[in-house]
Amino acid sequence: MDIKWDQILIIEEPIMFWTFIGLIVSSIGLVAGLTYFKKWGWLWREWLTSTDAKKVGIMYIVLAIVMLVRGGIDALMMKYQTAVPENTFLSSQHFNEVFSAHGTIMIFFMAMPILFGIMNLVVPLQIGARDVAFPKLNLLGFWITTAAAVLYNIAFLVGGSPDAGWTSYFPLAGKEFTPGIGNNYYYVALQISGFGSMIIAINFMVTILKMRAPGMGLFKMPMFTWTTLITCLIMIIAFPIFTIALLAGMLDRVFGSHFFTVADGGLDMMWANLFWLWAHPEVYIVVLPAFGIISEVVATFSKKRLYGYHSMVWAVIVISVFSLLVWVHHFYTMGVGPTVNSVFSITTLAIAVPTGIKLFNWLFTMRKGRIAFEQPMLWALGFIPTFLIGGVTGVMLGMASADFQYHNTLFLVAHFHYTLVGGVVYAVFAAIYYWWPKFFGFKLNHKLGNWHFWLFNVGFNLSFFPLFFLGLDGAARRMYTYSAETGFGPLYMLSFIGTLLIAAGVVFFVINMVYSSLKEKRITDRDVWGTGRTLEWLVPTPVPAYNFAVIPKVEALDEVWHRKETGKALAFDEKEIKDIHMPSHSGLPFYMFVAFFISGFLFVWEFQALAIASLALPFLGMAINSFTSYDEGYYIPAKEVIETERKGGGEQQWKAK
Amino acid sequence: MESKITNYSVPTEYQSELGKMNILGFWIFIAAEIILFATLFALYGVYHDRIGDGPAGPEVFVIKDVVIQTVLLLTSSFTCGYVITSMRRGNVKGAIVWIAITLLFGLGFLVMEINEFIHYVNAGLAIQTSAFGSSLLTLLGTHGAHVTFGLFWGIILAIQLAQRGITAFTASKVHIWSIYWHFLDVVWIFVFTFVYLGGLM
Ligand code: HEM
Ligand SMILES: [Cu+2]
């Protein structure tokens, strides 16, 4: 072990010091507040141990929004640093840590959890199920993801932040060039978060395959459910590769093995291959659910059936296969040779075809539709051109010979932000505005929403479009500063201003959530938007714990729309309502959170023997779970269900609009 | 969930809805495990002759011991089959006894594998020696860790069988464990073929 004990707490720099103080003060405030208002019991029973998929989903989203803010602050720091030439706000080392944290946090602890949260909220409702297949496992997934997030996020104060990028390439990331323990956080925290992702993948695959309402064949599933299913499939295929890559990386750093070292037979390029074998599919893991969300929103607010539903489904399936065959396009320049480059160039260009099909389908869905410019639709409309730019520049990067010019410049950075922000984040905002009223019983404020959208949209384009030009002019990514002679200054400054607008947009979003919770009109209509198409609009608003009083029988794709058109009543026949079985709460997943955190911490700190021994902690949790899995759950009596149904928009009459 | 088995037309472990979902979920998990081991095999495939300054495979492999290991594990897979047969016949005691026998063979395998590791380290091949050593020991170690996990899991299930008898739910649990155990056996066959036999050729 070569730990310098005086570096355990890293608070010499003023930014670190104040962050540290801020964290401590806000934690004390939180604890004091919960104690003062006697909310501990409530928090524990109603949330932290709840196996209700809806609550788990909301907890995922809360975690993700906190991480969005953390990653966003990182982004602001980077943009401030590069706003003018030769700035000294951040040192080069600190800049490395910040961009590494930004990328890692945004992918693993923002994008993935927020999508998992939306899946938890929406998928059971869309397939007419009361729950997910494995409710307790589901809660465990949340807590494991949280353990990983907490572990990664303490790095910058305790031991040092990983600083080799979110791609963490060897040999740079190895002990030789990055000594100390900081970079261990990357391998250990991401390993833990990978377990969380596997749990989601298995749970939702089984849920979707086994728990659909009677009559809902695979090709009657809503688009978001389809994309979730395929996303889970890609996760099952891609994540184990990353698991091994991370294990090998951790062994190299902590136990001195030679997978990716330069000496003793190791191959540094092996990391690049394993990493991208996972990471390219990963970009589709996050973007496919976004496609699903956009499909739902566009159809609902165009008041038309999704154009080319079947071709949409097949496009997603084809993408899932192709996503596994293009990984080399991330290192055309690293000497794999022209033949290999050509092959991967072709597969990369081919993947743009199904992606293009999807864009056209959304456009055709809107064509001749009566478009309602509600908040979710605004985000969907913003998504289409933005994501298009991301896709087109992807095709440019995909041409191997041209990529020698673009590779690792800001052009690349602009490309993947146009896909990840313009694709995923826009869709996530669309989803939040779209499904929010279903779960909370009020809409988010329209005016504040407009501010959120326009500030964010203008800010985003202002922030990232200049990067294309900077990149073409030769500005490399991940540079902490540049000289005035390069002439990069003005565009960098423009980009920084854009980032401020984005931040202002996010502030409006947060204000909107708070303001609307206090002020917006309460609604109980089942079909909140009046043009809902899928099963989630059949249940009371806000959604009761049991989801469906009676499991619906499905006759058509877009079942709710179909029912409205055929003039069927929407309330369930009260005579059919029976006692409803519910899963019990469980504290065990929280125990696992503690167990994984402790064990992970020991691995990071290279207490080799102790770390291995501490693996007993999570296994103990699994054993306890096995013995206690005979719990029978509890029942909600039919009388209570009927009352809830009457309150939750039971009387609303249905008309096709 | 806890009701005793009455309907014998469907295998015991498939009688509850939860049991069925658990089994499907576990098969998906096995799919992920296959990719996990495939990646380890791929690493070994690339690294098997990148021995640095350390010894090569044939210099350290003790084929006689490996054959005994293989026989032990294959037999345990065979006895594991009897667990399920006894269970479907409703014979709790039989099932528990067969689990115990299976675990004993598994334990024998594990003891020999630990010996094998000690032998390698004494022969100058550790995970720190070379890329070959890293990939070999990680592959074997991952498999061994899985076997260890299976041992504890089997013990826990045997206790539950003793406590609760054969119900649709306990049956699906034991069935899942048996899928896992057979799977480890299959992985070992690949290890035996590619690592040891391949190494000797
Ligand atoms: C239309 C389909 C797409 C094509 C043809 C494409 C092509 C490419 C290529 C060739 C690169 C490597 C460029 C280089 O390193 O020089 C790249 C990088 C990247 N792309 Fe795409 N892309 C597409 C869509 C997407 C989507 C949908 C996402 C995410 C949602 C995405 C996220 C990324 C990321 C994160 C990187 C690189 C990250 C890094 O190096 O740190 N791309 N893309
Ligand atoms: Cu890619």
TrEMBL record, chain A:
InterPro entries reported for this sequence: Cyt_c_oxase-like_su1_dom (IPR023616), Cyt_c_oxase-like_su1_sf (IPR036927), Cyt_C_Oxase_1 (IPR000883)
Bilayer-spanning residue ranges: 15-37, 58-78, 98-125, 137-158, 185-206, 226-251, 283-301, 313-332, 344-364, 376-396, 416-436, 448-471, 491-515, 588-605
Natural source organism: Pallidibacillus pasinlerensis
UniProt KW keywords: Copper, Electron transport, Heme, Iron, Membrane, Metal-binding, Respiratory chain, Transmembrane, Transmembrane helix, Transport
Keyword Protease: no
Phylogenetic lineage: Bacteria, Bacillati, Bacillota, Bacilli, Bacillales
Domain Cytochrome oxidase subunit I profile, residue spans: 36-555
The family this protein is said to belong to: Belongs to the heme-copper respiratory oxidase family.
Name assigned to this protein: Cytochrome ubiquinol oxidase subunit I
UniProtKB/TrEMBL annotation, chain B:
One Pfam family matching this protein: COX3
Membrane protein topology class: Multi-pass membrane protein
Keyword Transmembrane applies: yes
Gene3D superfamilies found in the cross-reference section: Cytochrome c oxidase, subunit III, four-helix bundle
InterPro entries given in the database record: Cyt_c/ubiquinol_Oxase_su3, Cyt_c_oxidase-like_su3, Cyt_c_oxidase_su3-like_sf, Cyt_c_oxidase_su3_a-hlx, Ubiquinol_oxase_su3_dom
Keyword Translocase: no
Family from the record: Belongs to the cytochrome c oxidase subunit 3 family.
Protein name: Cytochrome (Ubi)quinol oxidase subunit III
